[in-house]
Design a protein that fits this description.
The complex is a heterodimer of chains A (392) and B (290).
Chain A lengths: L4 H10 L7 E4 L5 H12 L4 E5 L12 E4 L2 H11 L3 E2 L9 E2 L3 E5 L3 E12 L4 E7 L6 H7 L4 E5 L8 H10 L4 H20 L2 E12 L4 E3 L2 E5 L8 H4 L9 H8 L3 E4 L4 E5 L2 H13 L6 E4 L6 H12 L6 E8 L4 H15 L5 E7 L2 H10 L5 E2 L3 H14 L1
Parallel strand pairs in A: 14-16, 16-17, 17-18
Antiparallel strand pairs in A: 1-6, 2-3, 2-6, 4-5, 7-8, 7-10, 8-9, 10-11, 10-12, 13-15
Helix pairs in contact in A: 2-3, 5-6, 10-11, 11-12
Chain B lengths: L10 E4 L4 H13 L3 E5 L7 E2 L4 E4 L2 H8 L3 E4 L3 H13 L4 E4 L6 H14 L2 E3 L5 E4 L3 E4 L8 E8 L3 H12 L4 E6 L10 H10 L5 E7 L4 H12 L4 E6 L23 H10 L3 E2 L6 H8 L1
Parallel strand pairs in B: 1-2, 1-5, 2-4, 5-6, 6-7, 10-11, 10-12, 12-13, 13-14
Antiparallel strand pairs in B: 3-4, 8-9, 8-11
Classes of the chains: A alpha+beta (392), B alpha/beta (290).
Chain lengths: 392, 290
Amino acid sequence: MKIHEYQAAEILKSNGIPVPIGYMIDNLDEVKATVETIQKESNNAAVVVKAQIHAGGRGKGGGVKFSPDLNSAVDNAKSILGMQLITPQTSGEGQTVRKLYITQAIDIAREYYLAITLDRSSSQPIIIASAEGGMEIEELAHSSPEKIIKERIDPIFGLQPFQSYRISASLGLTGHALKEACKVISDLYKSYVNSDVSLAEINPLVLTKDDRIFALDAKFNFDDNALFRQENINTMRDIFEEDPADVEASKFNLNYIKLDGNVGCMVNGAGLAMAAMDIIKLKGGEPANFLDVGGGANVETVKNGFRIILSDKNVTAVLINIFGGIVRCDRVANGIVEAVKVLDLNVPVVVRLEGTNATEAKEILASSGVAIIPASSLDEAAEKTVEVAISK
Amino acid sequence: MSILLNKDSRIIVQGITGSEGSFHARQCLDYGGNVVGGVTPGKGGQTVFDEKLPVFNQCIEAKQQTGANVSIIFVPASFAANAIKEAAYAGIELIICITEGIPVNDMVETHQYVKQQGVRLIGPNCPGLLTPGEAKAGIMPGFIAKKGKIGVISKSGTLTYEAVHQLVSAGLGQSTCIGIGGDPVIGTDMIDLLGLFEKDNDTDAVVVIGEIGGQMEIETARYVKDNISKPVFGFIAGRTAPPGRRMGHAGAIAGGADESAAAKMEIMQECGIHVVESPADIGKTVKQEL
């Protein structure tokens, strides 16, 4: 799960990490009073107006504006709130800006990068830092990997003070700033563990001209598997930032991701679902979605799966590929027949059922009278689906 | 022969009185595996399956009284990490965790603990192991497999069944099939298992099925180049997956460019692995090359 920058700043602040003074607003009426409050608290006329969407690259799309005074802040807020913000990480249509985060402007001496995530190779948390802040870390990893500092943490013993010191010193920090940076690193690790964070990224972490450390922008992603025990984090979910079809699917415990093609697919198991998308592409089609109906493929899941796939108007054909292990294919077949009857489908459906009770399932489909195109292998199923999707 | 699991393995099931646990324990028993008992805290002293199998409160009791050396875990996600640690503490040599949805932080800690105890964990979020004709420890449908000489290692469940089905259709049986799990933190990786298959006299070739996300397939490919003499076949699911999105499995998210399916397939090819382009050609390709 992702959250907004202003929510990440709240988490940092509550863990003792210094962040610029800032307030979130979702209404232009609040701009003037908010800017005045920040000016008074920070003793500085300049503020930064920042669009709040989940995608990164907001500055490049014109969603982050430095504002030297109240009038420019109000103008910038007017132009950003409600805009369709297009960044390298959004879709072509962009994302509607529904919230603004207005912060004090900070006098920056240097920018750094600091993040904690899981190192999958060692199965340990890893701290990644660099003195080249503000840059995309992936870019830096390719162009100058030697500029990236990495420190793995033994999860049983936790982050040790000498490790925070090593990282801060490697960033070139000294004196008071080094001490502050050590504390930031240790506090960030605590929030990483306590809030079940999957990525905690401060970019940039800045050194001010008066030798202080601030987290100027932050991004937090959370482990979906741990949300059941993170009540506070759950309240931060913003469904306006998620695809409506994904939200609908999650209500039915289905795993759905919308793509740009026209061949819908319904599969049991995530690996097989990806493989089905891949073979559709190999056969010359474009998959419209990823949909894993999971282990309990029955009448209800099949029906809901159809509803979600067909809510995408680009879909011109649907491939159902079920490999029954524990799932019984005859039950899935009954589900398909009933769903097709009830839903009055207007696109062709190709069905391939294999595994437990597959023979019975084929008989059920054949004798049902519903218009289903049967297939006996994954290859044949993909080929037939792409064929009917194109001719439609 | 086979790896890790055979007809002599003494298997217990943690969570045997739950609906999943009891269903699959029965299936493993019916397949012919040597299931010797189960563990459910608070239900020790009871029996299941017409008084055939004893239930214990703790793993350590089950181990002492049955001589178990394999445990299959079917407990809910919020308790599963503790169940793994309990089995490791009891010294169960092979722990197979089927449970999906365990928090990553729990697994990070558990992974370290299991290593310290010197035992092996398979999974979590996996279908387990199947040594055709001998035993199954997990949820793979036994009837689709056939005894033979191909090893199968996979991150996925149903895609493994698809691969096994294709192998059998091509006339090829399997020595052992292992689902290693689709989570970011898992107990046993592909390299460990390839090493075991290399030493197994009854395995002639290995099929490795990976997916987007993480570096495991790339590290595996480099390992194969230097250490494995038997033919290795590879498929990577998710070539059409959009970057940055989690595709069902918690670990299936392509972060950097080198975590994509295309990048993994390219490096596997470079390292001498027979890369299968289409998921429908796994069985056919192995048959042709052997």
